[in-house]
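URGENT: need a sanity check before tomorrow's submission.

F., can you look over the Non-ribosomal peptide synthetase record below? I want to be sure the sequence and structure line up before it goes out.
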Amino acid sequence: VVVEHRSVGAYLQRARHAYPDASGTALLHSRIAFDLTVTALYTPLVSGGCVRLADLKDAPVTSGAPDFMKATPSHLALLESLPDTASPTGTLVLGGEQLLGETLAPWRECHPDVTVVNAYGPTEATVNCTDFTLPPGAPTPTGPVPIGRPFWNTQAYVLDAALLPVPPGVAGELYIAGTGLARGYLGRPDMTAERFTANPFGGPGSRMYRTGDIAMWGADGPLRYVGRADQ
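Structure tokens as predicted:
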């Protein structure tokens, strides 16, 4: 996936304002090649923060708890098994997998003062393009946690097979448009043309990305992930 510099810059511009705790200490525990690292490494660096590199299992030994962390929902069970100093004290951003309230609740009960952000987005949209925030005191949803609303520089469309918008509560395929779209797939013009299509809701030359994900707008506004179109 060929992601342009301007797309990464736009993502980080938004991230530094959306995640103020990144101006403190962040724990980077993932490989550089994983796009989760863009949030965990560069957001603190453009926010005046400090990045500590450590494996999650070693983090409690190296120093105190970080202020900011990004992880996947699968990491929650590991964080629960580790000392409290392995978990962030300010903001935990979760992404890369569907987040269930039942998976999040045990960790959140032990860390009620931490803001949890459920982030959604394919690499083709530069890391993440929507998110849903659970501030301290907000109830943990049951079942799938909403994936929220698109970023300020992003448009999200839930469309039927004729590329027409579906009403709230009706599932359709999720398409993404905006500044964060990647250029395409390196050396794969056929795949690029298939997944990055003309945007009928935008200006001349604008594109949108066909995610292959099924989603719906909730009656209360936020997007909800339903599943994959190919399953």
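My own read: The mean pLDDT is 94. The chain has six helices and twelve strands. If you see anything odd, call me.
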